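Task 17 of the worksheet. Students: predict the tertiary structure of the chain below and write it out as C-alpha cells. Keep your answer in the requested format; marks are given for formatting as well as content.
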Amino acid sequence: MTPVLVRHQSLAASAPPAQACARARDWAEIQERMLVPLYEAVYERLEVGPATRLLGLGCGSGLALLIAASRGARVTGVDSRPERLSLARERLLPDGVWGGGRDGGGTRLVDDSAAAGPDGAPYNLVTAFEPVGCAAGDSDGLAPALAAAVPLAERGGTVVLAGWGPPERCATSGVLRIASRLTDAPRWRPSLRDDLEDVASRAGLRPDGSGRVACPFGYADMESAVRGLLSTGLFDAAERATDHVQVVKELTEALHPYLRRDATVWMPNIFRYLIARTP
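Model answer:
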C-alpha cells in the first residue's frame, strides 16, 4: 500500500463540488493568512533559504510554500484536497494566476506520496503546519504521515509540527466548540501540553526545541469571519447534523464578543510549534 503523507479531510469529502471550491477559495483568500506569523517565525528560526529542501505536508493552497520559496528554498507540497491544491498550483507554478512570472524554482505540488520523493538530495526540512489540538482525534493521521515522510528526509533532518496553544490563550477555541455542540458526537477538546511531543514520539521523531507564536485571527467584517472559519472544514460535520443556516447563526452569535466598533472581528490566539529530528 502506498504510504499516505497527508491527513485526509474526511469531513470535507462529502461537500458538493461547488461548495468545496468556494470553501477552498475562502481558505486561500481569508483564512490561510492567519498563520503567516507561525510560518515566518519557524522559517526565521531555522534560517530557511537557498540550502533548504522542504517537503510541506498538508500544504493547502500553498501560502507557507510560497513564503519559503521567496526565501530561496526548493519546495514540494503534498495535499489530498484537490480544490486547495489547484489554488496552490495557481500561486506557485509557472503559469499560475497568482504566480505571475515565477519560474517555479523547482517547486512541485502533488496529491499523493507516489510523486513526493525528493528530486535529488533528500529533504532537510519537513513541515506539517496544519494545527492539531482543537478536536478529539485530529492528530490521529499525523503520526503515520510523518513516519511515511521520514524515509524521504535526510538523517537528522528537521521536522516541524504545529498545534493550538492553551485554550485560555486562544479566543477562537470558544468559537470552535460550536462545531461539537451541534453534532451528535462532540469532537472539541482543549489542546494539551504534550500533544505535539506525543505525535513526534509516535512517528519516531526526536523533539529538539519548541516555540510559541501569536497568530490573531482578524477579519474585515463578520461575513468574512464566518466564511473564513467555515473554510477550515471544522464545521462541516455540524452543517451535516443541522444545516448551513443554523451553523452560520450559531457562529455569528459566538463571534459577537469579538466584533469591534469598526465592524472588524479580532480574536487573539497563541499557536505552538515543535521542532523534531528524524532518526
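Marker's comment: Confidence is low (pLDDT under 50) at residues 1-13, 97-104. The longest helix spans residues 17-31.
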